[in-house]
Design a protein that fits this description.
By secondary structure, the chain is an alpha/beta fold. Helices cover 33% and strands 21% of the residues. Strand 12, helix 6 and strand 13 form a beta-alpha-beta unit.
Length: 412
């Protein structure tokens, strides 16, 4: 088995949030064989001197939609799954080239796309899929326009729209169906949304009994529930019923943050999507009502991060982008800087993301035995995140599971 050595590296210790100089990292096959901090000769088929460069674990985006190949929901509903999957190839490759070696898909990707990546048919980040998001009638995942009884969709099989389920029996069955089809976690719409046509942003969705039932089904399968929620009420209800991660959470207040902390929940902010939509909303055909909801939450995202951080709520990294806006994925780094340090942002996209995925020690770290997901970054990203925001120049190498997908380094 060939060995690859990265020598003289400034290694990002994602658990502690610090750079450690003079590291040698040895890769064998798909895993890290050793991490050394003393001058030691290492026999390797390839050896790279990383003087003046940083070595990071592969990044984790905990909220993406890789099959949202267009922002136009109606157009998307009219496309067959084969065409959507073909277009998702470019989305996946783009994420990987930006350094995201693992992503949690929050609705859309199915087990077939997941397996295509695992087999190497598509180059892309490893996928943790949610299947169809669970939504009550009229909830955030109910995409039917007012007056429509059904949603016509040729994209059957992909979880681009909600699995509409009402009542404890229906939500249990819907959760079990997602798990049967390979979902790594369950997604539930626990409150109103910005882009949905009929639900108020500060509304709560699903009864406590329904939420508890969904969480029970996830726990029975040794996994967890992620919940779309903005308002303090929807956040508090969700975590007290057993939800593990709150997606977006822009209207978080001190009381709901305390509830999250008490319940051991994680916050997954997605600032990039609001900035992108604010810039592109007219082009996207957004209505005045949708813009009103956007403006209400857009500038509260940073404050929500500040509140969560003050209460000790762990914060993961998410983006929630659609269509052509996927290219803005790396803007999330800068958008968080008013509330987090560069090192904390890197932790959110590495070790904290791995905790969310129940992959601590395997992903998001550079440690012996971990997956060989490694990024070579110009400069010191704990001081300046600019190289990650311009990956064409700032990211000379991307390795996932021991395989280079980008390598501009010179072997010595």
């Amino acid at each position: 088995m060939d060995r690859i050595a990265f020598r003289n590296a400034n290694l990002f210790d994602s658990r502690k949030g610090v750079m450690r100089p003079n590291a040698t990292v040895v890769v064998e096959g798909s895993h890290i064989a050793d991490v050394l901090f003393e001058t030691t000769r290492v026999d390797a088929a390839q050896s790279f001197d990383l003087a003046d460069k940083a070595l990071l674990p592969g990044l984790i985006d905990a909220h993406v939609h890789v099959t949202a190949v267009t922002h136009d929901v109606l157009r998307l509903s009219m496309q067959p799954p084969s065409l959507i999957t073909a277009q998702a190839k470019q989305v996946l490759e783009g994420m990987l080239m930006r350094g995201f070696t693992t992503v949690r898909d929050a609705a859309g990707a199915d087990f077939g796309l997941q397996e295509a990546v695992e087999r190497g048919l598509f180059a892309g980040p490893r996928l943790f899929i949610s299947g169809w998001p669970l939504s009550q009638t009229g909830g955030h995942g109910d995409a039917r326009p007012k007056g429509a009884q059904t949603m016509f969709c040729t994209c059957a099989g992909l979880g681009l729209f909600g699995a509409i389920a009402d009542g404890v029996g229906e939500v249990r069955k819907a959760a079990r169906e997602q798990l049967r089809n390979g979902a790594n976690q369950i997604k539930v719409m626990a409150g109103g949304g910005v882009a949905s046509p009929t639900d108020p942003i500060d509304g709560t969705q699903y009864s406590l009994e329904e939420l508890r039932a969904i969480c029970e089904e996830a726990a029975a399968a040794n996994t967890y529930v992620m919940a779309h929620a903005y308002s303090p009420a929807s956040i508090t209800r969700a975590v007290q019923c057993g939800v593990r991660t709150i997606e977006h959470g822009n209207l978080l207040d001190e009381a709901s943050a305390k509830a999250m902390k008490a319940c051991g929940a994680y916050l997954v902010p997605t600032l990039a999507t609001y900035a992108a939509i604010a810039d592109e909303g007219v082009r996207l055909g957004w209505t005045d009502a949708m813009f009103e909801k956007l403006e209400r939450v857009r500038y509260q995202g940073v404050e929500a991060i500040r509140i969560a951080k003050a209460e000790g709520v762990p914060i993961a990294f998410g983006t929630d982008l659609l269509g052509f806006m996927h290219a803005r994925q790396a803007t999330e780094f800068a958008l968080r800087l008013p509330a987090m340090s560069a090192a904390e942002i890197l932790q959110s996209a590495t070790s904290v993301g791995a905790e969310v995925l129940n992959q601590s020690g395997r992903l998001g770290v550079i440690e012996k035995g971990a997956a060989a997901d490694l990024l070579v970054v110009e400069g010191d990203p704990t001081r300046d995140l600019a190289p990650l925001q311009a990956p064409d120049r700032g990211l000379p190498a991307v390795m996932q599971a021991g395989r280079f997908y980008k390598n501009l380094l010179t072997s010595r």
